[in-house]
């Protein structure tokens, strides 16, 4: 009886190993393996959260406007903050629309590329493409302020060289 149990268990183990090693199947949702698609989706969720926060801020500012006395400094500050929040909300909605379009396109591209690479027995996703994406993302989010990028040449900077004419 014990030998029979051992025999059945070894046969089942062999069948299991053969099935796992012998079968290669396509992933049903290859975009879930794509790091660029995952990053786009996370950015989209963050943008949705920011839109929700900005909407609540805008509602609070409008509710406060009713309580503020007319022709006061507080009313001007409230109007300025309301305008700023409205512009920020418009930018966030535009960015959300961009991310929705971009993520949908990336989903379609990743499915197509996965199928092509699967048929040709190549690795996917391409790590070089993800590195390029990260570089482009970093450059898009880099500050455009000149003073931030260019070092200042003053006494606190190690590159500073004192001019002998200015020593007097």
Describe this structure in words.
This protein is mostly helical. It contains five helices and no strands. It has helices spanning 2-22, 35-67, 73-119, 127-140, 146-149. Helix 2 runs antiparallel to helix 3.
List keywords for this structure.
168 residues, 5 helices, mainly alpha
Describe what is shown at a glance:
This protein has 5 helices and no strands. It is an all-alpha fold and 168 residues long.
User: How many β strands by DSSP?
Assistant: 0
First-residue to last-residue Cα separation: 105 Å
Task: Give the helix/strand class.
Answer: mainly alpha
Low-pLDDT ranges: none
Helix content: over 70%
Please give the largest β-sheet: none
| Strand and helix order | HHHHH
Task: Describe the oligomeric state of these chains in a short phrase.
Answer: single chain
């Amino acid at each position: 009886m014990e030998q029979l149990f051992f025999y059945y268990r070894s046969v089942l183990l062999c069948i299991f190993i053969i099935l796992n090693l012998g079968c290669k199947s396509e992933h049903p949702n290859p975009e879930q393996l794509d790091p660029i698609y995952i990053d786009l989706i996370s950015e989209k969720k963050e943008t949705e959260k920011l839109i929700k926060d900005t909407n609540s801020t805008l509602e609070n500012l409008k509710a406060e406007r009713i309580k503020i006395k007319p022709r006061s400094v507080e009313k001007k500050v409230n109007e300025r903050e309301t305008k700023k929040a409205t512009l920020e909300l418009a930018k966030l909605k535009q960015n959300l629309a961009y991310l929705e379009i971009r993520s949908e396109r990336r989903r379609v591209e990743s499915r197509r590329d996965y199928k092509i690479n699967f048929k040709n027995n190549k690795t996917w996703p391409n790590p070089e493409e993800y590195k390029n994406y990260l570089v482009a993302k970093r450059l898009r989010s880099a500050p455009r302020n000149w003073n931030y990028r260019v070092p200042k040449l003053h006494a606190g900077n190690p590159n500073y060289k004192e001019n002998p004419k200015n020593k007097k």
